[in-house]
Design goal:
This protein is α+β, with helices and mostly antiparallel strands. It has one domain: DNA mismatch repair MutH/Restriction endonuclease, type II (ECO RV Endonuclease, Chain A, 3-Layer(aba) Sandwich), CATH 3.40.600. The protein is 27% helix and 31% strand. The chain has six helices and twelve strands. The strands form four sheets. Strands 5-6-7-9-10 form a five-stranded mixed sheet. Strands 8-12-11 form a three-stranded antiparallel sheet. β9 and β10 form a beta hairpin. α2 runs antiparallel to α3.
């Protein structure tokens, strides 16, 4: 059974996409303009790009929630999980949404995404440390993903998806020596939800709660 929030977001993906992409290019590809009319190029830095994506999508999320009877809360500080908390006003269920992005290394593979820690609140599921609400308070944990080409200081060929975190998780950490869950890297597998490494949310959580 498809989660109702997942279905609603996927039915509205064009609205999110149009906030980010125009005629195949990122809507901010021409840079930003200050109050004096001076134009500045945007650094092709993954952290900068990620934050700009989040800023661009904020108003889209607010509009989506108003139209679909959700209440939205944004993370109140850096590194707090999740980026968005959506509460269904009909059921009072709350959902975690983390916004993730990655550039494409080839037309088939991305560099990879980090999907949050596999320690801390992920294991101590009633803790509020570094999370807006305890992990187990959330009915489901989703990823809103943005994949893009990064060539010659230009961002293009943006693809977006919205799915459960466990569906795009890998079985290896996502970055260096940090305790973050890594993602799968095949674009087709991510977009089409094929070749998942985990068969269920429970299998995913059991694996990462016992990792290391």
């Amino acid at each position: 059974m498809i989660n109702s929030l997942k279905k609603q977001v996927n039915n509205n993906l064009n609205n999110f996409y149009n906030a980010l992409s125009y005629k195949g290019k990122w809507t901010l590809s021409d840079g930003v303009v200050d109050c004096y009319g001076n134009k500045f190029p945007i650094p092709i830095d993954t952290k900068v790009i990620s934050k700009l994506f989040e800023s661009q999508l904020e108003s889209v999320w607010k509009k989506f929630c108003k139209e679909n009877n959700y209440t939205i809360e944004f993370a109140t500080k850096q590194n707090q999980y999740p980026d968005l908390t959506l509460k269904c006003n009909k059921t009072n269920n709350i959902y975690a949404v983390d916004e993730k992005s990655s550039y494409k290394k080839t037309n088939k593979l991305i560099n990879g995404m980090t999907l949050g820690t596999y320690k801390g609140y992920f294991r101590d599921t009633m803790s509020c440390k570094n999370t807006l609400y305890p992990y187990d308070s959330y009915k489901e944990h989703f990823v809103f993903g943005i994949l893009y080409n990064r060539e010659e200081n230009t961002i293009s060929d943006i693809e977006i998806f919205f799915t459960e975190k466990w569906r795009v998780a890998s079985k290896t950490p996502g970055s260096g020596n940090t305790t973050n869950i890594g993602s799968i890297k095949k674009i087709k597998s991510i977009i089409e939800e094929k070749d998942n490494l985990f068969k269920s949310k429970n299998e995913f959580e059991n694996y990462w709660r016992n990792y290391e």
